[in-house]
Amino acid sequence: MTRVPHVSKISNDYTIPEKAIFGDSVLAQMLLWVSIFATPTISLAALKTLNDNLKSTSAAAETGGHEETLLMYAAEKLWVTGFTKEGKYVDGIADGNEVTITRSGFKSTITETTAATAPGHFIIDNAVANNVAGSINVDMTASAGAIAMTVVVANLATPIVIVDGEILMASNPHIVSMTLTTATHRHININNLPSRADLFASAIAFNNVGYSDFTAPLLVKTL
């Protein structure tokens, strides 16, 4: 039986930086082939706004600020919603034609690959205060199969609660910062934390299959 290609799901396939790069590709391709994708569900202008917002909030969140991180995750949710809707539109236009899917910038299920398992166990090797008030450095060991990791800093060593695959602030009021990093970027600085505070750093790795357990929280005292 011949496998009919469809637009590949994107919600869990990419880190935030990879989503922005993917968004640029989709925008360029759909503009190039506007004769095929003439009436998109989400206009290309609106799609560009979603992608630009993801880029700007991601850049702002690199400071490690709590509010900036929340804005980045909010922008990511809007991005996923918008590009998922556009993917469904492309899927309808393509009607099983892999070439048409490729021309849109979206990926085809014929060529997609999926990790076999969720990321393996990993640890935070070290978490120390930097010579700057409210700033720490975190070093992590690689997690097999991970595409990205989230470092969480909290004011208690209480376990982090995950709801439907998401770290929700409402369920974790002790969190003061969340920082997303790619799996290859394992040495990070987190800034804008409370000064002269006892904080606890932990991390979780994830891929398109699932996520690892959180690392054991490490105590770090900020200047």
Which features does this protein show?
4 helices, three-stranded antiparallel β-sheet, four-stranded antiparallel β-sheet, 31% helix, elongated, alpha+beta, 223 residues, 21% strand
How would you sum up this structure, described in words?
This protein has 223 residues and is an alpha+beta fold. It is 31% helix and 21% strand. It is built from 4 helices and 9 strands; from the N terminus they run ααααβββββββββ. The protein has helices spanning 16-32, 44-61, 66-94, 98-103, and strands spanning 124-129, 136-140, 148-154, 162-163, 166-167, 175-182, 187-190, 198-206, 218-221. The strands form 3 sheets. It has a 4-stranded antiparallel beta sheet. A 3-stranded antiparallel beta sheet has the order 1-2-7, with no helix packed on it. Strand 4 (162-163) and strand 5 form a beta hairpin. Helix 1 runs antiparallel to helix 2 (44-61) and helix 2 (44-61) packs antiparallel against helix 3 (66-94). The radius of gyration is 19 Å and the shape is elongated.
Name the helicity range. 25-40%
Number of E strands: 9
Report the biggest beta sheet as strand number plus sense, adding barrel if it closes.
4 strands, antiparallel
Strand order of the largest sheet: 6-3-8-9
Mind telling me the C-alpha Rg?
A: 19 Å
Low-pLDDT sequence parts: none
**Distance N terminus to C terminus?**
64 Å
Instruction: Give the averaged pLDDT, no decimals.
Output: 85
Strand content is: 15-25%
Number of helices: 4
Q: What sort of overall outline do the alpha carbons produce when their principal axes are compared? A: elongated
**Class per helix and strand makeup:** alpha+beta
Element-level helix/strand string: HHHHEEEEEEEEE
